[in-house]
């Protein structure tokens, strides 16, 4: 008995070999003599149609109990399909029902459910077309990330998740504490006391692997991380998560120019890869989620990104004649509405904004001679805004120490980081790409909570 997944079966020719097809029933159409089942196993958007000749089989009892969501193993042969949309179907002669899904209680019925509703049943939403497609695209993109860096001889580095330093100096940290669940420390009033820290020292979940990546870039030249990061910002938006995955390359002997080129090549590579590798899922997003997305991503994959300084960007915004709800002037952090204007109205494509004011960026960025700006870069894309943030790093010991103090951080906790400047310092640069922002951008999904299997965000940490 051959056992191939549905995506492969759909590409196969009719044959006498018995196929065994495990999957979930998406739909059932029953008539007097035949029953049509659409089976899906997650390998592709399209399901396999199984046809049961009721007079030739003894399956009526089983069919009566089959409803959307039931799990089955169907056996039969592949025959040419007279219907349009598929070239083969399964002429099914045996059917095992593994698990029923009673229609009265199964939450996923054969109609379109809102994404808000599906978020409340995150453990089941993977069974819908949209979430199947999102997760396949997400999977492919993560492989493409590794491929891009491996081809360029970057070393994949695993950076720690528990850390003592605030890598962004933004103060949005989750603290890690030890807790003996059988004998938890209690306050006098009997409530749980969570103020215990990590074996005597304060510890947090990492906001970025960058500082650790810098340590290895200044030893091994080119490294990248790809792991979970955590932000305790109270941002209840469609582009912020409390737990998200970030890809962070870091390069020694590299300046902001080299950093921008890498970022641009990276985004273009990922877009080309996904358009080539997941055409069926991308066509689905184009049809059902964001019309025109395939064509627009293809254009982006083939064009140069517009580059401008922050000062130029502010100038463009001030002269735009738009009334923004947050009015643009030099010194502000760019808001989503500003990023939207720059990418959608002004450049009509991605923009790399560089040289932001020192005061709104992290302590580790290299300072420009003007004393006001730093060698920062943000890559902005239409429909989303910031997808990448990065910079050339400050490689000088004294300016870095000063910047740490100016930002109100303790130099003691950054001594190891300062060592990288004390010993064999080099110009170096890197960036971070938010993986869920990328998946949102590529799929056209509107809410970042819908491109990660189980979102952790303000008000959602269930499942
Ligand atoms: O701009 P950010 O904060 O930069 C850093 O963390 C640097 N240490 C990166 C580096 O240079 N190595 O974050 C980088 C990217 C953002 O551009 C955005 O795509 C994503 O991470 N990001 C988030 N994604 C989802 N939810 C959040 N709360 C995010 N915060 C940042
Ligand atoms: Mg940023």
TrEMBL record:
It holds the Pfam family tRNA-synt_2. One of its GO terms (molecular function) is asparagine-tRNA ligase activity. It is found in: Cytoplasm. It is an enzyme of class 6 (ligase). One of its GO terms (cellular component) is cytoplasm. Its main location: cytoplasm. It comes from the Bacteria. GO terms for biological process: asparaginyl-tRNA aminoacylation. It catalyses: tRNA(Asn) + L-asparagine + ATP = L-asparaginyl-tRNA(Asn) + AMP + diphosphate + H(+). Its EC number is 6.1.1.22. Residues 135-453 form the Aminoacyl-transfer RNA synthetases class-II family profile domain. The keyword Membrane does not apply. Keywords: Aminoacyl-tRNA synthetase, ATP-binding, Cytoplasm, Ligase, Nucleotide-binding, Protein biosynthesis. Belongs to the class-II aminoacyl-tRNA synthetase family. Homodimer. This is Asparagine--tRNA ligase. It comes from Alkalispirochaeta americana.
């Amino acid at each position: 008995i051959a056992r191939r997944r549905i995506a492969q079966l759909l590409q196969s020719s009719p044959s006498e070999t018995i196929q065994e097809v495990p999957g979930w029933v998406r739909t059932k159409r029953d008539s007097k003599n035949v029953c049509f089942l659409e089976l899906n196993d997650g390998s592709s958007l399209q399901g396999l149609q199984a046809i049961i000749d009721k007079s030739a089989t003894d399956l009526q009892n089983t069919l009566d109990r089959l409803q959307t969501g039931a799990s089955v193993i169907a056996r039969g042969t592949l025959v040419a399909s007279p219907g349009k949309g598929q070239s083969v179907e399964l002429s099914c002669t045996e059917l095992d029902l593994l698990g029923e899904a009673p229609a009265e209680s199964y939450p996923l019925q054969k109609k379109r459910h809102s994404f808000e509703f599906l978020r409340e049943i995150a453990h089941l939403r993977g069974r819908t077309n949209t979430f199947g497609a999102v997760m396949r695209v997400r999977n492919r993109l993560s492989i493409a990330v590794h491929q891009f860096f491996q081809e360029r001889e970057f070393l994949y580095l695993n950076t720690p998740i528990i850390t003592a330093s605030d890598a962004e100096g933004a103060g949005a940290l989750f603290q890690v504490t030890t807790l003996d669940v059988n004998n938890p420390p209690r306050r006098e009033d009997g409530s749980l006391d969570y103020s215990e820290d990590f074996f005597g020292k304060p510890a947090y979940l990492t906001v970025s692997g960058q500082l650790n990546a810098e340590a290895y870039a200044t030893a091994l030249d080119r490294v990248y991380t790809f792991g979970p990061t955590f932000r305790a910002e109270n941002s209840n938006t469609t582009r912020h998560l409390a737990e998200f995955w970030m890809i962070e390359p870091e390069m020694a002997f590299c300046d902001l120019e080299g950093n921008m080129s890498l970022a641009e090549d990276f985004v273009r590579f990922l877009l080309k890869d996904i358009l080539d590798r997941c055409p069926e899922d991308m066509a689905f997003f184009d049809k059902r989620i964001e019309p025109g997305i395939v064509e627009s991503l293809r254009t982006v994959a083939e064009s140069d990104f517009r580059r401008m300084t922050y000062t130029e960007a502010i100038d463009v915004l001030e002269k735009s004649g738009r009334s923004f709800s947050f009015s643009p002037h030099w010194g502000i952090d760019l808001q989503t509405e500003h990023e939207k204007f720059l990418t959608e109205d002004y450049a009509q494509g991605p923009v790399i904004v560089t040289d932001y004011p020192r005061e709104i960026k992290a302590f580790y960025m290299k300072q420009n001679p003007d004393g006001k700006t730093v060698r920062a870069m943000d890559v902005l894309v239409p429909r989303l805004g910031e997808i990448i943030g990065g910079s050339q790093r400050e490689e000088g010991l004294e300016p870095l120490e000063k910047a740490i103090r100016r930002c109100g951080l303790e130099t003691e906790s950054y001594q190891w980081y300062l060592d990288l400047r004390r010993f064999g310092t080099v110009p170096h640069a890197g960036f971070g790409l938010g993986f869920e922002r990328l998946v949102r951008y590529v799929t056209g999904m509107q809410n970042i909570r819908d491109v990660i299997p189980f979102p952790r965000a303000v008000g959602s940490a269930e499942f």
